[in-house]
Amino acid sequence: MLRFLLLEKAISFNFFLITIIAFWFFFDPNTLQAQDSTYYVDYKQQVTGRLYTSRKYTSLVVNDNLNDYRWRFEPNSTLNLGVGATYNDFTLNLALGFGFMNPDRGTGETRYLDLQAHLYPKNFVIDFFGQFYRGYYIERFNGETPGVLGSIYPNLRLNMIGGNFQYLLSGDKLSLKAAFLQSAWQKKSAGSFLIGLEAYGGWANNEGLILPTELVPLNRNFSGLGFLQVGPNAGYVHTFVFWKRFFLTGMLSANVDLGRSFLDLESGREYKWGVQPNFFARGFLGYNGPKWSLNANYVRSNVRFSKVGDFNSSFITGNYRINFIYRFAPGPKLQKYLDYVDPGRYIPALAGQKSKN
Predict the structure, then answer these.
(1) b/e string for 229-258 if b means 16 or more Cβ within 10 A?
(2) What does the pLDDT look like over 2-37, one tens digit per residue?
């Protein structure tokens, strides 16, 4: 039987306008103005419409260093079908997990709200995460104990909130909007280093113990864990353009975060300060034509906790999608509505020139 809760548990959307306005107060507005260059073209004043499929997830990984066990708790998140549009520097996407795309896999129900905003104004890379999940199952286990894989935790909750902010050193040569949003066209291959700052906080808890009691005794087991961390990051991104309209973009950044982690043990909550390396990877591949684009992309973030007792844990956040893009100039009737959501109407420095083909 197909689940009727798919619409409730799979509403996923991105509100980019709010974050763009917020960062207006922190950055020089002149750096946010998109302009055509010899390396890329911005499709200003055109609507970049998209139809896409995607899946978002946030997993919990727990490593028991005493027994060399490794568990991965995975949500039963849905494969979603979505529509969206970008106009100038405003993007709105809405995706739903329909029943015909998600047959029952026998791994329990997951209810979730997964908010991810990935913004690429000129010279900046900005990411926001807000993940709220309930319902997990053990998707991987490196031991040989039978009956562990597929174990369902309907009351296991995971929440994470955070952000990543980076400055693109060669923003005049490289447009990440061309790779991720397809509201621009990268004409020539280019690369750039990035530097920035990130901050994350998260926690997970269960009504009972999280790890199987037959493998981890009560005096070592726990019902909850969490962290709060902040630190600098640095990375590199490069777009390879071949046959004029095909592109391949890869981006990897790493950081060293200082933070405080905790475990809720039987004896009480135990804290530990520490420094942890994390990474953030993205990949984009596709064709970007004058009017339409077909592409695939993947975003993955790995946030590690400081070791508490015998346990190392991490949250792994991912989002992969396939996009079909079509760009068009809005007519007079549509234009009057778009004017209300155009950031350039409220932030003059964001108003750009009309696109060139």
Answers:
(1) bebebebebebebeeeeebebbbebebebe
(2) 343 343 344 444 433 334 333 333 333 333 333 456
Residue type at 163? G
State residue 100 phi and psi, 5-degree precision.
-70, -20
Residue 281 is encoded by which pair of tokens?
């990877």
pLDDT at 21: 38
Nearest CA to 168 out of 117, 126, 116, 118 is that of 126
Q: Smallest Cα–Cα separation from 129: which of 277, 261, 301, 322?
A: 301
pLDDT at position 95, please? 85
Q: Which residue ranges in the chain fall short of pLDDT 70?
A: 1-37, 341-357
Measured distance CA(298)–CA(284) in Å, rounded: 7
Residue type (1 letter), 302: N
Task: Say whether 329 sits in a helix, a strand or coil.
Answer: coil
User: How many helical (H) and strand (E) elements, i.e. helices and strands, does the chain have?
Assistant: 5, 16
With contact defined as beta carbons under 8 Å apart, do 305 and 271 qualify? no
Q: What is the pLDDT of residue 10?
A: 40
Whole-number Å distance between alpha carbons of 82 and 77: 15
Q: How far apart are CA 351 and CA 34, in angstroms?
A: 8
